[in-house]
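ingest -> validate -> predict -> emit
validate: passed (alphabet ok, no gaps, 735 aa)
predict: started
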Amino acid sequence: MNVSDIETIFTTAVHKKQWAITEADAKKIFGAMGMPVVKEHQAKTPQAAARAAVKSGFPVVLKASGPGLLHKTEANLVQLDMTSEAQVLAGAQKMAADVKDLEGFLIQPMVRGKREFVAGMFKDPQFGPVIMFGMGGVFTEAFENIVFKIAPLDEADMDDMLASFAGAKLLQAFRGEAACDMQALKAVLKGLCDLALTYPQIREIDINPVIIQPDGAPVVVDGLIILAPFVEKTVLAPRIDVKTLGACFYPESIAFVGASASPGKWGHMLPSNTLSRNYKGKVYLVNPKGGTIMGRQVYKSVEDIPADIDLAVVTIPAHHVMNLIPELGAKNVKGMLLITSGFREVGSQGAALEEKLVELARNAGILILGPNTMGMCNPHADIYCSAAHAYPIPGSTALVSQSGNMGTQLLAFAEQQGIGIRAFSGSGNEAMVTIEDYMEAFERDALTRTVVLYIESVKDGKRFFNSARRVSRKKPVVVLKGGRTTRGEQAAASHTGAMASNARVFDAACRQAGIIQVKQPMELLDLSAVFSSLPLPRGNRVAIMTLGGGWGVIATDLCAEYGLVVPPLSEDIVQRLNAILPDFWSHGNPVDLVGEGDPDIPKTCLEELLKWDGCDAVIHLGIHGKRVLVNNMAKSIAKTDPSITTEQVDAFKRVILEFEEAYTRFVVEMTQKYDKPVLGVSLLTDALSQTLYRYEDLAYKGVFFASPERAVKALSSMYQYQQWCRAHGESILQG
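emit:
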């Protein structure tokens, strides 16, 4: 069968308004695409079916055949293990009597095998063709033990697909049957990809089961192809110029259109926030009333400003914004940060208004950020133009949030914890600049080393997937997905389509593109902290060092839950630690320092663990953060013991503080010396505690979390990303 034969099958089915391809034709197509398909005979009558069974050789499988027969097993139209001509004849006659639209019969040899799998394809409206693989047979939908990947698949994708579902062990030697021929199984996955990408009229493909025979050879014994009544052509918005987007974050002049003298209003918040920092550009305030605001001249219109403008920050009501476009165009405005609400988010009328505004702005050469956004900031240019009066330091983490409140929270946390921000944008309605545009901008931006996103939806799933996959080859992408609900009821004709959901497909796209997904907002910046501050681990082996046994046990359990290994110490490292620690130390991993007060012991033990070639990372717990405990203890002493002077108390506190400062720097020096990630968990934290500690002369930073779980989850994500990079042949430079 060649391409023209396949096209003929599809054309004939469409002409007859039969959107399901018969099993016989489907398997001919599968065979033409290189899949291992069972040999079978077709018969028009019960008598011909009986003769075909004799020719095939018993035992056989008898199936009814016809374009409307989609789930034959449930309708008792499949008879297994038939051993005689008479049995086949009787079975076929009963099927013919029971089914009106029967076109004939299929006779297959009875394929033996203890292992059954399902493979398939469906068209996702956002991401396009999605390939599915998992446990097959009659319980496919009941157990839903499946994995998804976005087409096309490369070798690494197929390897991951066949290794990452819960039944992957069944592909190995199993109960006396040989290991599966993985190349033949990959031929099924590749064939599905080729069909999906070559023939857009295919909506779904279902191959169930793929039976693994005792010798390990897979064979397709049943299949279904569903065509779409018509092929939808998605109209996507034109792509923006990412250079212009970048320029919006480095404006030499800003006009605040809708400036207000009332504190708390957007027109006051944004210019006051911007002017309170060290922004070096020119700032113009615009309000039809004129006068002065904040002691600055107010222009009655944009036209009155005596210079060109790079960025317009607009807070006027939605129905007035379109009239502003000609004025902005006359001032050569590059971008408009449109804070104003009242567009697509309020319904159909708002959506129509937004579309008209975008058309006008595009014709005028103006890029719209928003509308309905909380603002943006670029610490590298001292621009803090958002509702959040938070001022994180310049750094390498690019942050985009589709939720303004989420973005505000993350900026405030970044400032508090010393996490540097490359730039922030609340993307709002994304009328022109979408999350996909930001991804492509991050790909080119040398200052961005970690991308952090809060996403509720994507406008162009395929473009998002492709750009994320490219970005992940250079820098980590961390995503928190909001609105993780399944798609509504779907009229799916196949097992594959019935198990599809928005959340599952998005998760699959993230895994395949190298995106690290998190479930809580705090994790976004936890990961930005480690990715921007530490080298990636070479493997998943963790040495744990703790000032108390309980935390070591907890950390060990967490490592097991998150795919990390806590290996036993080698005899050599035990002997070296014996020379440092008292006889009653734990003599194992975790290494319990048993509360020793010598300030050099934690340093010496940490370096010994980093020297050990049996670990890829170190987590140390309870050594940092004693300062908080000592401060409280000093207050108690001062109140209760009059013999202790204030100077003695201060000296005691100073010793602890000096140890903590020296230890923190030592941790970073050891991270750099041995090129292994070291993550700390502080004993206690207070308002002065930070996640990151930086030193100008050291490339890496000190990372300290408030709980073992945060440290372990962050390290696990680093390992996950390292594994993805290794599978895709990438070498990511950290530091």
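The mean pLDDT is 91.
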